[in-house]
Amino acid sequence: MIAKNLRFFILTFLCIVMSQRIFPQPEAGQKSPDPKAIPLFSRLHTLSIHVQDTVTQDSVFRFLADKLKLPVYYNPVKYGNRKYAGVYAGNLVLEPCGPYSNFSYASKDFEAIFFGLTFEPSKSIALSADGLTDRKVNYESGDSYIYIKDPVICGDNITISFMDKGTGKAEDKRITDSLLTEMTKDALDEPGIEYVKEILIGYKDNYNLTKWKELISPDKLINNKIWDKNDLPEFHFSKSGIKEVQSITFKVKSLERARQYLLRNNLYGDFINNRIILNKTKTFGLQICLYE
Questions:
Q1: pLDDT(159) > 80
Q2: Which runs of consecutive H residues, i.e. helices, occur in the chain?
Q3: CATH code matching the domain that covers 41-291, chosen among 3.10.180.10, 1.10.3720.10, 3.40.50.720, 2.30.30.210
Q4: Cα–Cα distance for residue pair 13/197, rounded to 1 Å
Q5: Domain residue spans in the chain?
Q6: CA end-to-end span of the chain
């Protein structure tokens, strides 16, 4: 009987020791992780382009697909008075959509503007929502989405949201991988776009910029101007009169080849800081740059 109890005691002791090794307990005084050390984003899935009317929506879509030779992510569809379509730009979807009569834009007379940034959450919608709460960022959320409602960071000409495709992620990756393969084919009569290299964000004031810094933490802004994160285009920040997505820059295979293509198609605008700027009268007012 004594031997049996001794064996039971030894086994119980060993179980306790092993559980402490496998599931270590926090030491007294140990700080819990800083919520801002947990990233909110994994990648930027979609950059939407808002338009003034459905005719412009169709024209912008055709420009992106036919002139810039970006493969179609999904064909035009209409919901109510709005039209939507998507093209794949190598690392994100560009989505011309609208018109949105319920939005109050800072720019009144535009044909098309870059507008909505839709990210995928780093881990889950729930954890990103917790992270926004910890950062004191106002938002609205559901099981698969988050819409940031904070007027310090959104409004004017920009929205920010999160979307989790859930079980549709695998199919989405299959589609984008197929479109990426299509983009790598070396066709002659095209600008040779590879992916979106940079997105220029206009910030209104230092309070707006500080909110962006809190949003991207634990990442930091390089020289207070550049957010460079794996799986994302570089985000550059520039002081502006309004909150907005000012421009995008595509990485191209050859700048000279792109220049020749743009000249043939009457799309060439200017050459500044080793970048080609497309003619904005041909891009519906969108500022689009090319860089090698």
A1: yes
A2: 2-22, 54-62, 125-134, 169-183, 206-216, 255-264
A3: 3.10.180.10
A4: 58
A5: 41-291
A6: 82
Residue that the structure tokens 């954890």 belong to = 127
Cis check: omega of the bond before 99, within 30 degrees of 0: yes
- What is the C-alpha separation between 62 and 67, in angstroms, rounded? 7
Provide the token pair at 226. Answer: 């550049």
The verdict on whether omega for the bond into residue 218 sits within 30 degrees of 0, i.e. cis, is: yes
Residue 23: alpha-carbon gap to chain centroid: 37
Residue entry with tokens 């098309």: 112
Contact 133, 214 (CB under 8 A): no
| CA gap 142, 145 in Å, rounded | 5
User: Which amino acid is it at 177?
Assistant: D
Sheet (strand 275-278) strand order? 226-227, 234-239, 193-203, 244-252, 287-291, 275-278, 268-272
Report residue 250 as tokens.
Answer: 């595509």
Output DSSP code: residue 157: B
Q: Do 268 and 283 form a contact (C-beta atoms < 8 A)? A: no
> What are the pLDDT digits (tens) for 26-74?
444 555 556 567 899 999 999 999 999 999 999 999 999 999 999 999 9
Between CA 280 and CA 94 the distance in angstroms is 17
